[in-house]
Amino acid sequence: MKLLVIGSGGREHALVWKLAQSPHVTQMWCAPGNAGIAEERLARNQLAVECVNLGADDLPALLAFAREKKADLTVVGPDNPLAMGIVDLFQKNGARIWGPNQKAAQFESSKVFAQNFMEKYGIPTARAGTFSDARAARDFAAALGGQCAVKADGLALGKGVLICGSVPEAERAIDEILVGKAFGAAGSKIVIQEFLEGVEISLHALCDGTTAKLFPTAQDHKRALDGDEGLNTGGMGAYSPTPFLDDARLAEVGREILDPWLKGCAAEGIDFRGILYPGVMLTKDGPRVLEFNARFGDPETQVYLTRLENDLVELLDASVNGTLSRVDLKWSPMPSVCVVLASGGYPGAYAKGKCITGLTQAGQLPHTKVFHAGTARSGDRIVTNGGRVLGVTAWAGDLSRARGAAYAAVEKIQFDGAQFRRDIAAKALRQAQIQSHSERMKFNL
Ligand code: AMP
Fold this sequence. Notes:
This protein is an alpha+beta fold and 445 residues long. 33% of the residues lie in helices and 25% in strands. The protein is built from 14 helices and 23 strands. The protein has helices spanning 10-20, 59-68, 79-84, 86-92, 102-109, 111-120, 134-143, 167-179, 247-268, 300-305, 312-321, 359-363, 399-412, 426-442, and strands spanning 2-7, 27-32, 50-51, 73-76, 97-98, 128-131, 147-152, 161-165, 190-194, 199-202, 205-208, 212-214, 219-220, 223-225, 229-232, 237-240, 273-283, 286-293, 336-342, 368-372, 375-378, 381-384, 388-395. The strands form six sheets. It has a five-stranded parallel beta sheet. Strands 10, 11, 12, 17 and 18 form a five-stranded antiparallel beta sheet that branches. It has a five-stranded antiparallel beta sheet with strand order 13-16-19-23-20. The radius of gyration is 21 Å and the shape is globular. The N and C termini lie far apart (55 Å). 51% of the residues are buried. The site of adenosine monophosphate has 13 residues, from strand 7, strand 8 and strand 18.
């Protein structure tokens, strides 16, 4: 099979790395890819993955490329081309593609759509209202005592959510988005949700239009600094599985979310083939969906795909063909941890072109994979080319060792201004210690 993968981040490097292991794949391109993706080789014939200089949003050029190369399947990584309707465009032109169509991608591209859907079909979510009128929005926020999340309806590069702790703060957020148009047309409508407290986890389910197969849990670390301080980022690290839901409870939570979601999709004529990724807050009153994404999480993909034992090509094929009910997902029991190395200043302004050293040494460590995100090749060097630069990922027999291995690999890598969080998976380890202590108490060990 010939594959085209669209995107250039750590998620896409993980997808390419995993897809390249499949004996089905004879040739692979990535548009536009990055320096790490360009180093991957196919397990079947040792052919290099070829990066092609086409933007992930350039839909006509991507279609023309896929047709010219007779790609058997195009795999879409990021949200933007999905929201723009790349799947519909390819399908109309007889080109096979994996990902949700534009209508299905609305779960991510419109928070108003997603919130209304959750309420209509009884998916557990936060108390919320949707607004285009600032005065009504202010009244709703005031009724919540200002403790709320104000969210722009459309895609806003992950920056469209403002968490507020008081009425004046909420009013400022509403004015900024609805009146000041801080996010342009993406903010012509907003969702206001009550502020929820709890542990936030990521769920993923692979879907084929009628079946949804739940992944194990993962947890992202969205804030820039240790202790969940600092600005929101695209994600500074992740690990899987989390100790916050055991398998039985995960299955229950999955059903509470996915059963009504599948019913709603059937009722609304939504044919969702791709990854549904709900962001979930585990509150003391039960799970609550904060948002839906319609693609793989980044950096969750890096920890999921280092645990996945199935052939990913076969899974994506089944998702496109509607035959997922015949497939069982298989996961390595080894936990996986990904630590993101970012450019100094990220998520604000940052410099590019800094030389990265130590990649070879880090890559030689056992059970370790350094996924590239914002990197480029400059002559014989690899340099920084984005905010999130690398996703250093390691797996081991337990979470503590996986975490230690990921940080040991991080220590080998250097570039000017590199920043990373030192507490990825730290809360999970504390939780696991508490659990094992209370187990010991229970059994009087
Ligand atoms: P979203 O893009 O909707 O997931 O929001 C981005 C981040 O804001 C989430 O990952 C949460 O950390 C936080 N957040 C969103 N909604 C809420 C809420 N209702 N209560 C508390 N935190 C929230």
